[in-house]
Write a structure and sequence with these properties.
Number of strands: 11
Number of helices: 12
Shape: globular
CATH architecture of the largest domain: 3-Layer(aba) Sandwich
CATH superfamily of the largest domain: P-loop containing nucleotide triphosphate hydrolases
Order of helices and strands: EHEHEHEHEEHEHHEHEHEHEHH
Strand order of the largest sheet: 7-8-6-9-10-11
Distance between the termini: 33 Å
Helix content: 25-40%
Strand content: 15-25%
């Protein structure tokens, strides 16, 4: 799908910054596309963009209202539909990464039809996929995996794309979530694919490639998360990764949305290798990406040094300190590239 820019980012009435991670991700990686934000009463999240009404946005040439929030189950609250209708009536398209289809609200569907506006359901692909085959395919693939949801898997893959290209490597980010699709303009929201076809969809996202080409595949969920492990496992098998990076948020005690304790980084490395060997017996971990946003400079560096020493792998915060150490490890592990 082609989603016209610039965007007006809709934050609804969310009060948790992670609930606005779609909007934050688009802003972080495509700031030139983001004209402003619109918030409902009660919203405490602020991206620092200009506040706009729908009328303001239309007058300034905004093309699409992007629903920039996420929530458990991907539900679009009906109380937001009036803003969506107002945007459509003002001549904007609307894009949403939630599971709820925009046209499921009659008023939204009718407003789009009246004005000839497009409804972009980013999470829902218009393609059908084969089941995964698990046959070794040419090219190289790296998957980001996590100790939990929302720990930096997308940001790590995008940082690696930027860092590897800067070093002259042939590398492409492959989106598997709604925010990644909005950022990259391509990909499939894997969690909306029927379970039998998850691994096949990932094989489609990262198909046969040149021997030295790297596909950097955005991970989803965690193999240890009771809600989303099924998606994570299908993604792992379809990605058939030669390498993976473990992503972690060190201040959490339980996984997001459940009472289960976070697994250790060592547990994630071990289980990823054991499960990943089904489609790539040579799978290996090449680094650790830790979100140190909650730490000061000295504490962050100490955390990374400790993780590196414990696991014998380069550890970094990709946003804060870059990814050179992980790229160096890739060049060492895959010297023919």
């Amino acid at each position: 799908m082609t989603i016209p820019q610039p965007y007006l980012l809709f934050l609804g009435d969310v009060q948790d910054r992670l609930s606005a991670k779609t909007a934050q991700g688009v802003l972080d990686w495509r700031p030139e596309w983001c004209a402003g934000q619109i918030r409902l009463p009660g919203c405490t999240v602020d991206l620092g963009l200009p506040e706009m009404t729908i009328a303001d946005a239309a007058a300034k040439g905004v093309k699409t209202l992007v629903i920039g929030v996420v929530n458990a189950g991907g539900v679009l609250p009906e109380r937001w539909s009036s803003v969506i209708v107002e945007a459509l009536e003002a001549g904007l398209d609307v894009a949403s990464g939630l599971h709820t289809r925009l046209e499921s609200f009659p008023a939204v569907r009718e407003a789009a039809e009246r004005g000839g506006r497009a409804l972009h359901n980013v999470r829902h692909s218009d393609r059908t996929f084969a089941t995964g085959k698990g046959t070794k395919r040419p090219g190289l693939r790296l998957l980001t995996v996590g100790t939990d949801c929302s720990v930096g898997k997308k940001y790590t893959a995008l940082s690696l794309e930027r860092g590897m290209r800067a070093r002259g490597l042939d590398a492409d980010f492959r989106a598997t979530g709604q925010t990644g699709v909005l950022i990259s303009g391509r990909g499939v929201a894997i969690d909306a694919v029927v379970a039998d076809f998850i691994s096949g969809a990932v094989e489609w996202i990262a198909p046969d490639a040149a021997p030295g080409h790297w596909d950097l595949i955005e991970g989803q969920g965690s193999l240890f998360h009771p809600s989303f492990a099924g998606v994570s496992l299908g993604l792992l098998h379809g990605a058939q990764p030669d390498a993976f990076v473990v992503c972690h948020e060190p201040t959490r005690k339980t996984m997001r949305g459940v009472a289960h304790a976070l697994p250790s980084i060592a547990d994630v490395i071990d289980l990823t290798i054991r499960c990943g060997r089904l489609t790539n017996p040579a799978i290996r971990c090449v680094g650790i990406a830790i979100n140190t946003q909650a730490y000061g400079e000295d504490e962050a560096r100490a955390c990374l040094e400790a993780a590196s020493a414990e696991h014998g792998l380069p550890a970094t915060d990709p946003v804060r300190f870059g990814v050179d150490g992980i790229v160096d490890r890739l060049l060492t592990e895959f010297p023919a590239v």
